[in-house]
Write a structure and sequence with these properties.
Elements (H helix, E strand, L loop, with lengths): L36 E7 L2 E10 L5 E7 L2 H11 L14 H11 L5 H20 L6 H18 L10 H35 L5 H33 L6 H6 L3 H11 L9 H6 L1 H6 L7
Antiparallel strand pairs: 1-2, 2-3
Helix pairs in contact: 3-4, 4-6, 5-6
Enzyme class: isomerase
Pfam families: Topo_C_assoc, Topoisom_I
Family: Belongs to the type IB topoisomerase family.
């Protein structure tokens, strides 16, 4: 139907025919086989659930359980009839037919547009939910990365954990422990300085200055502990997810530029030099009230 394309929420790749020499058995939406889906009338408290399990691009496993409309469920049941596990699920369809149909509904509409549209709307929505202007810079960055991670999960952008992960995490944790010990010492120093200033009876400018200096040291230490703890959280959550693919290929850069302006975050915290050059057009034109 005319409006059905608005409901395409899975953000699966279309599944083009393989190029010469590509040997891996990977599939997308149009090339799914009977063995890649299982239909459940009821599952996890939902009706009409489709269970997907296949290898997508770069041999990354895609596993998902999705409740669908009854009509979709009935059609899939029909498409499975009298077929072997290795048979094509959509045997009368290929990507060029799909894209031709989509572009007849709306000029320029292709299967990839759904991935980019879903990715960008997800980013904007998550940034709205997760960001606080009152947060400190590292917390703001964590909320941006969390929004970007939601997109990477939607697009199934996984990665193997870096080989150095455990070691660098252990290093960071020991730095946190050392800084917390330093914080405890700074607090003791501050208490002592306050005690001495109080014992003086009257105001002593020298002792007041000392108290202020100790107070600043405590604040600085607290900031550093928080910053490192946020960094550890970010790294842990990022362990098996690749943020770069969606950032470069699926997300409208104007969303990120507007977010940086609104949140007073430097753009180079989000985009490196090469990325800033690639997205120069967006950096030049985007106002802080941009809505995707």
């Amino acid at each position: 139907g005319e409006k059905d394309w608005e409901k395409y929420e899975l953000a699966l790749r279309a599944g083009n025919e393989k190029e010469e020499g590509e040997s891996a058995d990977t599939v997308g939406c149009c090339s799914l086989r009977v063995e890649h889906i299982t239909l459940h009338h009821k599952m996890d408290g939902s009706d009409f659930v489709v269970e997907f399990d296949f290898l997508g691009k770069d041999s990354i496993r895609y596993y998902n359980k999705v409740p669908v409309e009854k009509k979709v469920f009935k059609n899939l049941t029909l498409f499975l009839e009298n077929k072997e596990p290795g048979d094509e699920l959509f045997d009368r369809l290929n990507t060029s037919m799909l894209n031709k149909h989509l572009s007849s509904l709306m000029s320029g509409l292709t299967a990839k547009v759904f991935r980019t549209y879903n990715a960008s709307t997800t980013l904007q929505e998550q940034l709205r939910l997760l960001s606080n202007k009152s947060d400190n810079p590292s917390e703001k960055l964590l909320s941006y990365n969390r929004a970007n991670r939601a997109v990477a999960i939607l697009c199934n952008h996984q990665r193997a954990p870096p080989k150095t992960f455990d070691q660098s995490m252990a290093n960071l944790q020991s730095k946190i422990v050392a800084r917390k010990e330093q914080l405890a010492l700074s607090k003791t120093d501050l208490k002592q300085a306050k005690k001495e200033a109080k014992a003086k009876g009257g105001p002593d400018p020298k002792l007041q200055t000392l108290v202020e200096r100790k107070k600043k040291a405590v604040e600085r230490c607290e900031e550093q502990v928080l910053k490192m703890e946020v960094q550890a959280t970010d790294r842990e959550e990022n362990k098996q997810i690749s943020l770069g693919t969606s950032k470069l290929n699926y997300l409208d850069p104007r969303i990120s530029v507007a977010w940086c302006k609104n949140m007073d975050v430097l753009l180079d915290k989000i985009y490196n030099k090469t990325q800033r050059e690639k997205f120069a057009w967006a950096i030049d034109m985007t106002e802080d009230d941009f809505e995707f």
